[in-house]
Amino acid sequence: MTSSLFQLASVFILLLAPVLTSCMPLVLPVDCSDIYNKDNRQPSGVYTIYPIGATSAVQVYCDMDSLEGQWMVFQRRMDGSVNFYRPWDHYKMGFGVAAGEYWLGLENLFSLTLRKKYELLVDMEDFDGNKVFARYSLFSVDPESYGYMLHVSGFTDGGAGDSLSYHNGQKFSTFDRDQDALEGGSCARTYLGAFWYNNCHSANPNGVYRWGADGTLFAVGVEWFHWKGYDYSLKAISMKIRPVQ
User: 239: closest CA among 112, 97, 136?
Assistant: First the structure.
């Protein structure tokens, strides 16, 4: 009798299992660390994440190789294929293609850094193949009502020098939304980019893509002043975050 009841119960559980499984909430990845933690053998590449919720699917490039991996790229320049001189709404929502050049979007950055504490890695390369980085132990972005203000601290030098701390505490600016610290002018319009400009910049990663040394127009290129100065536009730069380890 006991054996029959056990067999009956086993059959019932097997029949009910698909229903129970379908009712279980699906855990969607919020960032690249979620993808890595699910399977740490995943290679670097393009993945789908959900930074705001189930209806907010976006594609990002996950760097699983640099400095212990799990890095989610939110900004990348590599070949000049995408125009980064764009209005506020584009920077708010994001643009470009994750397999190439893109910007993830300020609203996504705010939502991500509201959920978790993140660190920041900025990788860069010049046209001679030299590679350096700058690392920051804390990175976050305020909501739009606060101008998507930048908070960054805890610099570690990987050969690039610190060109981002000057922008700490600054609101984001585009050519049609001037929130910089420059009186009587617009940093975004002057330096043909969009960023957390101060008065004005020591980093301009969203500037005009140019090819190396070029002093024709001052400081309008893809620049990181403490490495290459104001008259050298980088070949590649990427800004990436992961949860504080």
Answer: 136
